[in-house]
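Entry 14. Structure prediction run on the chain below.
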Amino acid sequence: MKNSFLIISVFVGLVASILLIRGLVNSYNSLQQADESINAHWSNVVNQYQRRADLVPNLVRIVKAYAKHETGLFKDITQAHNSMSKGKTKFRKISVGTRSLEWLTI
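Output returned:
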């Protein structure tokens, strides 16, 4: 009787240890899978940041070009305004058919 109890105890202990080891292995595998998933998602975040950082020089170039255009435009507007206020403008009449048009020349 003692011998069969020992065999059953060893068998139950063996099954319990196998189940425990299997549970630990499954836990480790699920932790590894979660870690890889986190790394993949973080990689996507880093890629988005890199893409946006790569777009910044283009945006700076566009803003500089528009600022240059705007500066020239404001200079032209200021010159035209000054010419108009000082009376240095000339009007040229152009006849088109039966209508007469006046064009402002600076």
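Confidence is low (pLDDT under 50) at residues 101-106.
Filed with the rest of this week's runs.
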